[in-house]
Amino acid sequence: MSSRPSALLSATFWEPGYEHLVEPVHQRDAAAVRRLASLDVAIHDESGKELASLPEDPGREILDLDRLVRDVAGADGRVMVLFDARYDERVFPYRPHHYAYLHRRGSTAPALYYAVNAVLGGVPERIGAAGLNNFETYVFRTSPFEERYSLLLGNVARFSTAEAEVFLHYERDRDTRNVTLGPKAHVEVDLPAERAGQRLRRVEVKGLFRLASYVVGRRAAGGELVLFDHLFRYFT
Amino acid sequence: MSVAPPPPALDDALLCYCTNVTIGELREACRAGRWPTAGKEETGRLCTGCAGDLLLCLRWFGGEPAA
Question: Is B56 an 8 Å CB contact of chain A?
Answer without folding.
Answer: yes
